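FAQ: What does the model actually see?

It sees only this:
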Amino acid sequence: MILATPERRLRVLALASYPEEAASSRYRLVQYIEPLAARGIDVTFSPFLDARLFAVLYKPGKLVGRLPALVLRTLARIGAVIGAWRADVVFVQREAMLFGPPLIEWIATRLLRRPLLLDLDDATWVSYASPVYGRLATLLKWPSKTNRLIRWASAVACGSPNVASYARSLGASATLVPTTVDTRVFRPARNPVARVPVVGWVGTHGTYAYLERLFPLLQRLRREIEFRLLIAGAGRDVIDVPGVETITRSWSLESEVADFQSLDIGLYPIAEDEWSAGKSGLKAVQYMACGVPFVMSPVGVCATMGIAGETHFAATTDDDWYGHLRALLTDGKLRERMGASGRAFAETHCGIEASADLLSDLIRTVART
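And it is asked to produce this:
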């Protein structure tokens, strides 16, 4: 009788620009460390920025005093990548450093000859004007970096079909690995109470501009129907929407799930551009997992997420947004029914285990190269 030889444990050095506080690191990398360990893959997570630097990164005028710390982090980054010689695979989430050419990735793949698994959850090859640093950020991030990394990678894990299509156009082996959440953590509130409905959005400073476009429409709605507006993570201490009671919160790792659970209706507006078309639709997954009905722009992968009309509403025009939000605000049973459908969809299609299997198989394939 021939006994199957168990696969040996693999070692992965995972490099990212951002710490766990950033959604890209948290949901594309950190949340898989334990599931991958259970599958025989040990991951060492090494972010370029620490939590303190990340906290001030997008606050105007507060980064200058941190420049010495950035220099030290850069030197430490070079030291960290030398350890890649012990790794079976180098996993890079977007980029190993926040700025400059792909020096770290070059050391890992060309000098140390480690196979590279690149993870892209956004269309990072698209020039993007930072709301804080403008076009300067584009230049510092080295515009050609993503294309070069795609060509160097043994495989690319992609958060959306549009990202996968772009990676394949450059000759890469691209695999769709959807962005998911742990539905044991993201779940409906245990004890919902009857109250004035809360319409809300949980996001980042970079996507806040999409939400602003809805303010006139929300003001119009509030003249007819009572509701509160919750905005978390916009990077602003106070947001004034005249005529609408607005609650503004800073984003935090500890309160993220509770912020989603506190909503009766979610907002997910995005722009119809190349950058938005490459996004992985994480917010839709978070809303559905928490049983929150929502209205979403059907752009890119968001046009395929959930079941429009059952788990959420899709809106392309102002009239769509107004009509769908009005229907949800005036019909509590519709909110309950749609929220329950979203939760069921998330449990069936958006669990972390299936994506962990995909990622595990991908890592082992890359290791064999």
